[in-house]
Amino acid sequence: MPIIVHKYGGTSVGTPEKIKNVARKVKKVHDRGNEVVVIVSAMGHTTDELIDLMDKITDNPSPREYDMLVSTGEQVSAALLAMALQEIGCPAVSLTGGQAGVKTEDIYKKARIKDIHLDRMKKELKQGNVVVITGFQGIDSKGDIITIGRGGSDTSAVAIAAALAADVCDIYTDVDGVYTTDPRIVKNARKIENISYEEMLELASLGAQVLHPRSVECASFYDIVIHLRSSTKDITGTYIKSVAQIAREASKMEKKEPVRGIALDENIAKVGILKVPDKPGIAAHIFGALAAESINVDMIVQSIHSAGAMADMAFTVNRTDMKKAVQVTEKLKKKLAAVSVIWDPDVCKVSIVGKGMVSQPGTAAKMFDALSKAKINIQMISTSEIRVSCVVRKEQGKKAVQILHKVFGLEKVR
Ligand code: ASP
Ligand code: MG
Predict the structure, then answer these.
(1) What is the third-level CATH fold of 261-407?
(2) For 3-249, which CATH class?
(3) Which atom of ligand 1 is nearest to the CA of 149?
(4) Taking CA 258 as the corner, what is the angle to CA 255 and CA 259, rounded to the nearest 5 degrees?
(5) Using a 6 Å cutoff on CB, does residue 137 contact ligand 1?
(6) Would the pLDDT of 252 be above 60?
């Protein structure tokens, strides 16, 4: 019997009515004779509300208690969905991550899933139950509840689908798929039918908030197809799968358009340390100090002053880390005999993503040319084989996205 794995996001289970609606959909799938496992997020903004509550008690929560607290949101939605299913005559049971056999690393707040023991899930499925599992959590070797990072329910769902050897993991959410860019920014943004794991991973990591990046990584590793789709409209969404599978199914993929999607990340800030004596070990020093404070650095630009043995070093961080990054860099300024530290929260990152750009030289140049014609100054650039990102002034970010969407012809149906 095929096993069906569905995941419902926070907005899709945001109210009792919505939970009842999900129950009706799940029952239909179960009635067709399938074994069904459903992973849920916490209702609406529950997780944020739990964190607000915590902030009223302490500025310095113990990570263990943090996990105890924020994992409760998913327990509420899982239990309510199981009850809603029972209410309409569909046998169901809810399980916490731990009860469902989800074993994680011994790291509070951001563990990776290590293993999934299927005994309990299999037993419940055999008895005819729909199994509803709390996303976002598992247990560590001590049996403590561990969460796996904000937005992690997508990853829970894909990992469970992989463990159950399902072919597809359906992720139901409040958008009906992955778009060429945010439709709120570009009106004629187009829904993408099929996208490769690699492209989706870039888009998800670059600020397209539709999927948890680690879920894509996990799907790619186990070759699980993700079908990202709307929880309210019964239409096909976006399939995220391997390049090989996409190519086998549609020969038109061979055309390989260079750019498939455009992402805008407005959550970044730029920090710079200017006129640092240019000696071996400077970069290691600066970025080592930032890493020691768990600050994630994204783009890095080093420029050389022709006049002397001096360098300017600029980098971007998550905006919430800017203050801390400036403090760390200020401390280093004296030690490294640098001249000044600068920072700027009013920047954003615009990225074009597509596997086809590997074989099409000139894609980056086309991006730079389009931005220059629109008088948008590029402050920093970084590239990978399938991505080009530019840091620009924040108020020009949306315009940059609109221009690039047009220049690369993303509105056209292919
Ligand atoms: N409820 C968790 C969060 O808000 C996990 C999730 O929704 O994926 O981060
Ligand atoms: Mg989510």
Answers:
(1) VC0802-like (3.30.2130)
(2) alpha beta
(3) 9
(4) 125
(5) no
(6) no
